[in-house]
Amino acid sequence: xDAGIGGAVAEVVGRLLAELGQRHQVLCxxxxxxxxxxADRHYRVSKTSRGASTSSEVxxxxxxxxxxxxxxMLGGVQITETxxxxxxxxxxVPGVQAPV
Length: 100
Prior knowledge:
It contains four helices and two strands; from the N terminus they run ααββαα. By secondary structure, it is of the alpha+beta class. It has a two-stranded antiparallel sheet. A hairpin with a 2-residue loop joins β1 and β2 (53-60). α3 (63-75) packs across α4 (81-91).
């Protein structure tokens, strides 16, 4: 659980989860870009509601979509080239699949 953490602690949690993932399957739901950027694969879960019906969709993100999603996690609604650049930097950490 990564509730109530951020910054350097989130980076350490991401690194430790990545290390654990070398030996075991790890599924992590997070809103922290420091944790998400360390994943081998990145999925986005979205939920839609129509009346009394709610459905969820899970889709695997390609390299470009990962940059956009980590940038969104970093910057919120307004994604700028600065947040995209920071997202690419986070995703380029050794042990993380670098986006194209």
